[in-house]
């Protein structure tokens, strides 16, 4: 048996894949990715694919950035592990916290690390609860999130997630949360309604839910500046300003889950800067290390940090953290990753190549299978429909999207299907020429399906 066949067999017999139809996987088997090269990945049959999803929306610098390898190696050789419990720490974690505090807008000046985005959002829930207990308002604990939002897979973060498949058969949500309508104008705008009226209707819904629950019971609102894994849904103009104002009015903590939008994805350092709002907490991961190492960071405001510190002074240890919180290798890689993003001016570059991606995807809007093209910065979603007029879907389970996802491989392209929306989120380093390669390969894939 060849090595590749034996790897496939081992995968099928021993490896439970995340976010995968496990029964179907037994039939189709794995694609084993062996190597990375810039914006390309190469499988174990030597086939190369342009990676138009940056892995999982995350590999900003592409798949072969030597400086990140060197940063990791150097840190491994110097101090491969230490922690930050009980007053100990190490230089990479300190420097990265300072760097993120410097980059983050407004008074977001305090940083706590976790290993993954899900852990970060779980941690945020605990921080907010801890804060409200410290402030003597133990009843202010509920969360507001959105349908279609994605915030993670752990029990609490999956509860914030607004996707039925993340809840069904997992007995979730497990924390008090209300999911509001996603700002998804193409699907949820009413006939004859303008986008501005739609935003106003969503703002009214938010007010109504706060009123029903009682503002004294609502702790926080969490949202991705652009809903990504739930279908690439950029916020309509004015949406975030309305949400921000309503949160301020009712003393509700505003949390921007920037796990995908931070570090240049929208052509600004952070997504909240693109939309012009100021969160009280920002959650970061993915492009923070280009996902060369697992790491997430929570950046919190001066006011929230003060409450945490004061309360801890009263009751003792702030009893939360993980063995590998702020891991030295991960934080060293993140520092180098941010240096490179700044040195190569990749935030501005994302704007330029993003315009090219947007033009390319919008150029496919007249294709018979395309219902809606949604783009912002260097990301896009193309929603496929059976009927352009009525916007009827092919199949609510996304069979066509699944077909396109697989067929794209034949064109040397990796995209992702979110039901029948095809997502694009290429590495920040992508060139205009490679954006054209992505668009041409996708157009060819669409024609196969038409
Ligand atoms: N929040 C958002 C917006 C995400 O996109 C993701 C992952 O895709 C998460 C949270 C969860 O992060 P992780 O997969 O690192 O747990």
Automatic annotation (TrEMBL):
| Entry keyword annotation includes Transferase | yes
Report the InterPro entries cross-referenced here. Aminotrans_3 (IPR005814), Aminotrans_3_PPA_site (IPR049704), PyrdxlP-dep_Trfase (IPR015424), PyrdxlP-dep_Trfase_major (IPR015421), PyrdxlP-dep_Trfase_small (IPR015422)
What is the enzyme's class at the highest EC level? Answer: transferase
Q: Which GO terms describe its molecular function?
A: 4-aminobutyrate:pyruvate transaminase activity
Identify the Pfam families for this entry: Aminotran_3 (PF00202)
Which Enzyme Commission number(s) are listed?
Answer: 2.6.1.96
Task: List keywords of the entry alphabetically.
Answer: Aminotransferase, Pyridoxal phosphate, Transferase
Listed cofactors:
pyridoxal 5'-phosphate
Give the family from UniProt. Belongs to the class-III pyridoxal-phosphate-dependent aminotransferase family.
Protein name in the entry: 4-aminobutyrate--pyruvate transaminase
Organism field: Sinorhizobium kostiense
Taxonomic classification: Bacteria, Pseudomonadati, Pseudomonadota, Alphaproteobacteria, Hyphomicrobiales
């Amino acid at each position: 048996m060849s090595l590749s066949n034996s790897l496939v067999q081992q995968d099928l017999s021993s490896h439970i894949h995340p976010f995968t139809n496990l029964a179907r996987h037994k039939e189709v088997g794995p694609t084993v990715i062996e190597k990375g090269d810039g914006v390309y990945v190469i499988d174990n049959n030597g086939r190369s694919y342009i990676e138009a999803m940056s892995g999982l929306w995350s590999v900003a610098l592409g798949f072969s950035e030597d400086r990140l390898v060197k940063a990791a190696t150097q840190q491994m050789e110097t101090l491969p592990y230490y922690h930050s419990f009980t007053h100990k720490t190490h230089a990479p974690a300190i420097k990265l916290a300072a760097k993120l505090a410097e980059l983050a807008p407004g008074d977001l000046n305090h940083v706590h690390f976790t290993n993954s985005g899900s852990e970060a959002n779980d941690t945020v829930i605990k921080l907010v609860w801890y804060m409200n207990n410290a402030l003597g308002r133990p009843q202010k604990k509920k969360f507001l999130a959105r349908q279609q939002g994605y915030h993670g897979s752990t029990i609490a973060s999956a509860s914030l997630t607004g996707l039925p498949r993340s809840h069904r058969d997992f007995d979730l949500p497990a924390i008090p949360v209300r999911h509001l309508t996603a700002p998804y104008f193409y699907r949820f705008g009413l006939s004859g309604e303008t986008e501005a009226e739609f935003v106003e209707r969503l703002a009214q819904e938010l007010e109504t839910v706060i009123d029903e629950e009682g503002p004294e019971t609502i702790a926080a609102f969490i949202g991705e500046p652009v809903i990504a894994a739930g279908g690439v849904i950029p916020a309509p103009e004015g949406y975030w300003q309305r949400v921000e104002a309503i949160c301020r009015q009712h003393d509700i903590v505003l949390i921007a889950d920037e796990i995908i939008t931070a570090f240049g994805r929208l052509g600004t350092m952070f997504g909240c800067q693109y939309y012009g709002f100021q969160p009280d907490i920002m959650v970061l991961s993915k492009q923070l290390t280009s996902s060369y190492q697992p790491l997430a960071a929570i950046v919190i405001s001066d006011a929230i940090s003060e409450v945490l510190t004061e309360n801890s002074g009263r009751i003792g240890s702030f009893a939360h953290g993980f063995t590998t919180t702020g891991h030295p290798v991960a934080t060293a890689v993140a520092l180098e990753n941010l240096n490179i993003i700044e040195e190569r001016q990749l935030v501005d570059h994302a704007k330029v190549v993003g315009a090219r991606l947007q033009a390319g995807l919008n150029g496919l809007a007249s294709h018979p299978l395309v219902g809606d093209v949604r783009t912002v910065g260097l990301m896009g979603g193309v929603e496929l429909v059976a009927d352009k007029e009525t916007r009827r879907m092919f199949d609510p389970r996304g069979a066509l999207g699944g077909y396109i996802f697989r067929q794209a491989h034949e064109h040397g392209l990796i995209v992702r299907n979110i039901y029948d929306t095809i997502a694009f989120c290429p590495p920040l380093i992508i060139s205009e020429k490679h954006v054209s390669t992505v668009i041409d390969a996708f157009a060819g894939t669409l024609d196969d399906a038409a």
